[in-house]
Fold these 4 entries.
Entry 1:
Amino acid sequence: MFTFAQSYLHTLDPNAIEFSDSFGIKWYGLSYLTGFVVGWLMLRWLASSGRILLTVPQVTDFITYTVGGVLVGGRLGYCLFYDPSLLVDFSGTFPFWGVLAIHQGGMASHGGILGVILAMCLFARNRQLPVLHLIDITAFIAPPGLFFGRLANFVNGELWGKPLAPALQEAPPWWSVKYPEEIHTLPLETVEGLVPHLANPLATNLHQQVVIETYAGNPILAHNLEPLLTARWPSQLFQALSDGPVLLLVLVLIWLVPRKPGVIAGSFLIAYGILRITTEVVREPDDGVALTLGLSRGQLLSVLMLLAGAGFLLISAKFGGKRVGGLLASCSNKRISSSSPDADSPS
């Protein structure tokens, strides 16, 4: 029976719908789809109310560019920043190249940001719109996607939080999390003590069998496994809250009144960088990625984001042009052509 003096044992299925052992619809993919749909709805409202320079017919093309930037940039960023081995991981099974195996997880938000900026430069050149304003728009609609992505990380049981303090391990609080996969780090002698509770005690890989049966819902096994596991911070949920509702609230407050193009993008980078650095304190550093100056890879990249955000604000102050937007204003922003003296160059 659940009490408030025990951790949550993670047994969530990453598959929303499973057609076979190797194929199904995963929550990870649905999280990205939901984020893009919410972003598209936000864009349509902003465009139809005249608060941005996009027209309603342009919204779908814009979100298509955004999707491409997020997926390509996010995946390449993960491969370059966290797991370069995927760049040379070739196999005889679909999708044949590790870089393309997005269905197995592995996206970097910092890479996604870089991908979106490049996509917006291309869109601005094709549509003759100010690139800083387009980057502002993508920054404003990004928090819902970040929120759903972090929830998917939790469902997948990835990006674990750090262990709670030793004093809390004996009676961990209800909000802490334990992961059955941690059994792989325990010695075989410990795992053998769980054999009497296995439905298949003759499995060749006892560690993996314990994980399989725990996720399949073996209650007696789960009860005996839980004391062997480490209670951890639910860092994915913390980052879902900070990267989603908190970050969106910051941007809404800043864009209540019209701002020069580039202000929202710069504010996004600074706020997201600060929030990411803060929440990374309770997140386990990525395997195989060494700390730099005491900072995790995510924190280090976030420091660079802070600098980039400051750069956006400086560029906006000098070249931003006319103020645009204003969520409280019932306005109709006239399109700024690239030839206008108040328009910034898309290059």
Entry 2:
Amino acid sequence: MKGMPRPLPDELLQLPHRREVPFARLTTLGVGGLCHWLFEPTTEAEAQVFVRTCLRHDLPYRVLGGGSNLVVLGDVTEPVLRLRLGAKTERRGLELTAPASYGHIALAEAAAAEGLSGLEWASGIPGSLGGAIRMNAGAYGCEWVQVLTRYRFLTPEGELVEKVPEPGEFHYRGSWFTAAHVVLSATARLVQGDSESIRAQMVDYRGRRGTSQPRSKRNAGCIFKNPPGQIAGQLIDAAGLKGLRLGDAEVSPEHGNFLVNHGHATVEEFAELMAQVRERVREIHGVELEPEVEIWRECCDRPAKRNC
């Protein structure tokens, strides 16, 4: 029945998991219902068991990273996978490797500590490394595909693959990964630099973000993609939408492309605010804004493509 958690096979229940976890604690936005099943493998082998078991039982699942680029609009009854693979990086020459569950900002700091330049732009982007790879995160004219030299992942069939990126696999704020792929680790090829200069650049980037973005309010980052040749935030601002508020959900007065949660925004408030912003921009500018964030809605229990 829709809205009710499906009984899970015993093989899954042997893996580390929690029940009934509010998405307010799992996302930076703090909006959403309950995560009925949260699985947190601590090894790649456990993650592989999870994927293969779900496949064998025709069980849809979802993959959660740091929850920083995610808007959850309701309860989620499918099993949710969130990796807990440790917090160690490995350096080989100019290459730095980290598990997908490693914090994105923490990885930029780790590179700086090693005197490796090339991830300064990442120092203000929250979330996990796995999520950053999936969406090809970027800032200040840089993006992950520019430094990514190798990555490991599980296919929807549970096969472990390690490969180098190929042309066309990554694009602006997106990649070839489906919702059922699980990124396990990634390796960046960087350049030797001076730690002090690298940190100075990181401070500069973070300072710029701090003056233009609502860092004191819970948010999911930029909500909409920049349309070709245009800037979503400017379109929203020109439509007179800054400060538009529904309950505790608001279009940030600081940056039009940030929708913030003042503390107790509901799923309904946030969904309606997103819809009103898109409708108004369409009316004023004739532009259809596309979400940059991933949006999770409650969906019926079906063994489709784990892509509800």
Entry 3:
Amino acid sequence: MKKILSLLLASAMSLSLLAGCGGAPAPAQSNNPPAGGSSSQGGSSSADPAATASPIKVAALSSGYETAYPGMWQEVCDAFTAETGIEVQLTLEKNLEDVIGPSMQGGDYPDVVLLATGREKGLTEQFIKDKLMTDITDVLSMTIPGESATVSGKMIPGFVGTNATNPYGDGKTYLAPMFYSPCGLFYNAGLFEEKGWTVPTTWDEMWELGDKAAAEDIALFTYPTTGYFDAFFYALMYSVGGPDFFNQATSYAEGVWDTAEGQQCFDIVAKLAEYTAKVTPAQANESDFSQNQQLILDNKALFMPNGTWIVGEMADAPRADGFAWGMTALPAAQVGGAGASYAFLEQIWIPSGAANVDAAKQFVAYMYSDAAADIFLKGGAVQPINGIVEKLDGDNVMFYSIYDTGANAVVGIFSAYESVAGLGTVREVFFDPVNGLVSGNVTKDQWVADIKAASDQMRENLV
């Protein structure tokens, strides 16, 4: 935990060096209200939100956590209502963007949205880029409903202040960190024990294991969708070049992809594509991604990048005899080096077009209450609040100890940039072409050339 906190704080300090920060962009949204954060921009200005606010609308992504504990979000909303008297209308969908997108285009916004960056639709990135989020810096100093502690006093230091929560480098918070999850390579520990295989600690060892597995018709690697390469690539960049290279790369520094570190990152991904199950690209979509995850449970592939939610997401899936979840950091770039694990953050935010801003801020503050945290833990969702690790059990004990066993923690995302005609999102530029690398439709040279060209435009148009 000390490692993740020190890196989070270092990432926060590095923001002052960047011209603009944020996540991958998405096409601009038109006909939206101006950005803002005060109650005068929308919603009640009453000191008692429950006295005047209509029911607040909360839109949350239905993820593996909800699968592990059905009704998790409704239980939290009911607890909030019982504590504050503020009613909640909950929208909970796996395809949340498709459900709330059309109504927002018409000016009807949720008051609170739980949707992280890095999704295929890029909705959260779109709101960041277009500056359509409410400034929620004041939430950090709010007293948590039902408790005497403030949000900032309850939160583990360092989880606010990175470009994942303060996307513009102006010291203001627009996205609050919700669930955090160590991301790494997940595998069947039972299979490794049966075969007598050792989990690789370097990429050379990884390739050697890949050859052994291929001899038994087992692929070395798969991935749910290319979106999962964000956490993978962030950890890879850090393990190859450390924090300096990571910060330069995520801000598209001129010439960064021509460095030895940049080339090594591309070489590793390209070689890993050769060891990836060939069925993966066809199933790497929002409808069929679980079939790629199933490859691990069926011993048809050894490793996949994922987060701790995978256990709940695949809880009811069939699996090979003796299956047991294992998780490892990305291998070290060289012998004697440290592996790396990206700390994925899900974010909760308030659109600037929300009708009940004050009540919405009460809801966000409540997310850090002991009552809410205990409910979320039933689904395996871990809040960044003090003492939470001591409450973990089962597989989560292993997952969240990854930073105590030698892995470097990695936090931060690619900087946000303005919309430019013909310029895709970070996911489209950096990660989606991996499908082509695996299928053979895209060469490494094509991929790298496109990244370099896009990075020049991204750097020139930072928000």
Entry 4:
Amino acid sequence: MSLDFDPAAQGWKPMHDGPMPGGLGTPWAQRFADGWRYALEMRDDHINPAGAIHGGILMAFADHVLGLYVWAEAKGAPNVTIQLNTHFLGAVKPGDFIVLRGEVTRATGSMVFVRGLIAAGDRDVVALDGIWRVFRPR
């Protein structure tokens, strides 16, 4: 299944640093007044046996993208996920263009706390929050 709209025509830019880990596809980015948002097209090969997008696909996308918010907050310092809490709110289907908007809620010298929400169209489908460890030069 493919998208019924052209993301580029809607202002989305493909991220050219390569596909997401695991070959999940090329993420898209767009700057809005309230900050960056990231998106990914859901494909037929992302489905679980029930025909919906596998939760692990959504979690991998969220982990990757929330790490971008951490990276920006940490001014490019390397970071790793410590904890990622995921709350599935609704099913996602192949052909959906999911969009994650996130924010940093707190930052210390070595930890960054983030939260995010993934939407498919006008439906919120995943709520997330997590903690990332930042490795700063000594």
